[in-house]
Amino acid sequence: MEMEFFKKKFGHGDLYRSLVFTIRSIKYIKMNRKENLISGQFQERIMLAVTQVNGCEVCSYAHTKIALEEGMDPEEISSILIGNLENSPKEEAVGILFAQHYSDNNQMATKETWQRLDQEYGQDRALVILAYTRMITFGNIYGMAISALRTRFKGQPSGKTSLFYELSMIISIIPLLPGAALQALFDNLTNKSNLPYVEK
After folding, report:
1. Cβ distance 158 to 9 under 8 Å?
2. Buried b (16+ CB within 10 A) or exposed e, 160-170
3. Contact (CB, 8 A) for 138 and 28
């Protein structure tokens, strides 16, 4: 069984929101590089699991390569890319399942799933897991437009996107980036919650 590509079609609003989340997550990525709160293999399991949910072709190729370089077993990589976590470490299952849930739920999570993540790993590690989940979600949204354009040029359009959509998603990063950076800065300065759920 092979991974299915182009499972979702994201809009420009999804791209913008994901970009804001990713910029706000940079500090947690830096924290992990300094403190090694989650391993390189754990990071790649998150990347592969989210990519499987969204169906990004270029991301699956890129992160398969990185996962192999991190020393992951090819059989485990193949399993994750079809949604099977049986070959993955049990102690990482909650984090990987959270990442899948977040991706499958339009860049949100329930309060209960966030609390489960926090209880399992502690707040700092949970925030790092969220940061990597958000980073690859942005990568998938942008990468899927690139993938669709590439397959179109090869004479095999995805059938789910138009040329205008693909080009506009790729080009829109230029005008969206300054606004997303300003919003992320404002959200940080005003201490807006960076958690993936909305209090009811």
Report:
1. no
2. ebeeebbeebe
3. no
Helices (H), 55-92: 57-69, 74-80
φ, ψ for residue 110 (rounded to 5)? Answer: -80, 155
The CATH number of 12-185, from 1.20.970.10, 1.20.1250.20, 3.40.190.10, 1.20.1290.10, is 1.20.1290.10
Of 174, 152, 155, 154, residue with least CA distance to 164: 152
Per-residue pLDDT tens for 94-147?
Answer: 999 999 999 999 999 999 999 999 999 999 999 999 999 999 999 999 999 999
Task: Specify the pTM.
Answer: 0.95
For tokens 């706000």, what's the residue?
24
Q: Compute the half-sphere exposure of residue 181: CA atoms within 13 Å on the CB side of its CA.
A: 6
